Amino acid sequence: MAYLQLNGCNLHYTDQGEGDPVLLVHGLGSSGRDWEHQIPALLPQYRVLTLDMRGHGKSDKPAGGYSVKAFAADCLAFINHMQLVKPHIVGISMGGMIAFQLATDHPEVPASLTIVNSGPELIPRRPKEYLMVAQRLFFAHILPLSAVAKGLAKTLFPKPEQQDIRETFEGRWMENDRRAYLASLRALVGWGVTERLDRINCPVLVIAADQDYTPVERKREYVSHLGDAHLEVIEDSRHGTPIDQAEKFNALLLDFLAQSGSSSPAGNNG
Question: Where is the AB hydrolase-1 domain positioned along the sequence (predicted)?
Fold first, then answer.
């Protein structure tokens, strides 16, 4: 297993293949292994990297240091250490927030952004949003992690034929460190970079599930404030789109990366 000491934290990562670098950034309570359906599709053409954020997966779970800005700083340190030149960054949910933070802080870094079921802020502005955030925080703090994992798995993968996926992800979420999970969840609430979206100067693909937590219209709204950006909606999908609609997701991602390529097929990874 590969680890790097970055910003005082031991972080687990994977690095496979050759070509333009693609960095896959996971969501809250997840890890790099959740990209298992994307890595084989990307490897024939790209150098594919995953990073377990602090508090997640096989990385250290420190007592403090949890914020979207800190997660983005860890990603930047990883990019610099691995000498990734103009990586394509793909982020789902919390990973999308990290991608937005990184791209607004350092617009010169990414070749492109792919934002999946995410947005540039988690600031409740409507009564329904306040309720949703309050419920998530309340239940995460009072319920055992096993109950949270079971509830999330059932919400994300509710179909009878998704039983195997449901059980797999329930098991994975139960492996979380409770303290690190709650600290990461709290770090997301109130975060936002919406007012700085004009700093992003790379192509952006926003992929939205038709049944995600937040409506497609919210994604369409922020896409309108980005320059070179477009929205793709995947039907019959919930929050875990790269898993429940892997084939459709991979086709969109590969097409976008081909259009946003920064170098020859041999790649430019420093």
Answer: 21-243
Residues 19-29: pLDDT tens digits?
A: 999 999 999 99
pLDDT for residue 130:
85
Q: What is the 3-state secondary structure (H, E, C) of 157-218?
A: CCCHHHHHHHHHHHHHHHCCCHHHHHHHHHHHCCCECHHHHHHCCCCEEEEEECCCCCCHHH
60, part of any domain: yes
Q: How confident is the model at residue 265 (pLDDT cuts 50, 70, 90)?
A: very low
Tell me if 163 is assigned to some domain: no
Domain that holds residue 7: 2-123+191-259
Place of tokens 């990586």: 87
d(CA 104, CA 206): 16
Instruction: Give the H or E element holding residue 70.
Output: helix 68-81
Placement of tokens 């192509």 in the chain: 203
For residue 264, pLDDT beyond 60: no
Helix (H, G, I), strand (E, B) or coil at 7: coil
Whether residue 80 is contained in a domain is answered as yes
Flag whether 129 is in a domain. no
DSSP code string of 17-65: -SSEEEEEE--TT--GGGGTTTHHHHTTTEEEEEEPPTTSTTS---SS-
CATH code at 249? 3.40.50.1820
Residue 74 carries which side chain, given as an amino acid letter? D
Single pTM value for the model = 0.94
